[in-house]
Amino acid sequence: MNARIQSERTRVAGPVGDIEVLAELPDQAPRAIALIGHPHPLFGGTMENKVVVTVARALRELGCVALRSQFRGVGATEGTHDEGRGETDDQLAVIEHGRRTYGELPVIVAGFSFGAFVATRVADRLAAAGRPVAGQVLVGLASGSVEGIRHYEPGPVRDDALVIHGERDQVVPLQNVLAWAAPQNLPVSVLGDTGHFFHGKLHVLRTLIERWWRATAPA
Predict the structure, then answer these.
(1) Among residues 5, 154, 115, which one has the least CA distance to residue 66?
(2) Mean pLDDT of 27-34
(3) Angle at 140 (CA atoms; ends 119, 18), nearest 5 degrees
(4) Which has the closest alpha carbon to 10: 59, 69, 57, 55?
(5) Which of 99, 108, 177, 103 is nearest to 139 (CA)?
(6) Which residues does residue 191 pair with via DSSP β-bridges, in sequence order?
(7) CA-CA distance, 29 to 200, in Å (whole number)?
(8) How far is Cα 192 from Cα 48, in angstroms, rounded to an integer?
(9) What SS3 state is found at 115?
(10) What is the model's pTM?
């Protein structure tokens, strides 16, 4: 890890046990809390995934406390995979930890692949509780039938949500996300000739997040 980034690693009490959390702090007073979810834990997904790290670092540099946590059964996080249900409960616990630790700041939910799907569920729960998120960043969102064995139905999102997908995504077909976004009149930023893991395009992800931040001022 870059030694210049101030970070804090801890374990947060969750509904079924400890949740391993890594917080990376901005250089100035934080403007928001950003929670970034990682890919499917049963297929090697962790909070150290390069796309997740890229999104977290971009949001940190924009002034957020960037929180990454391991989903159930990964690293020091207890519990077993729960197809997004228990993971949503855990992420809500991490957000409450963030608010207690860093203050009642606006919350941004973000994620990659399965983590993006969980982020939509977290936003739904917060909205139902009267505490809507200030922004959403969804990268490679798991939507529709994924690799023929899993199916995801993310709900509607904010009309200023940033949705980024690869044109040649081999895990979540682009058409799945376009079909989900179309009824919401929601734009999707499509990276041409790019697969699910955004090889060689991480710098473009950072640029898109920076542009979205300037345009929406979520915090």
Answers:
(1) 5
(2) 96
(3) 40
(4) 69
(5) 177
(6) 166
(7) 32
(8) 25
(9) helix
(10) 0.95
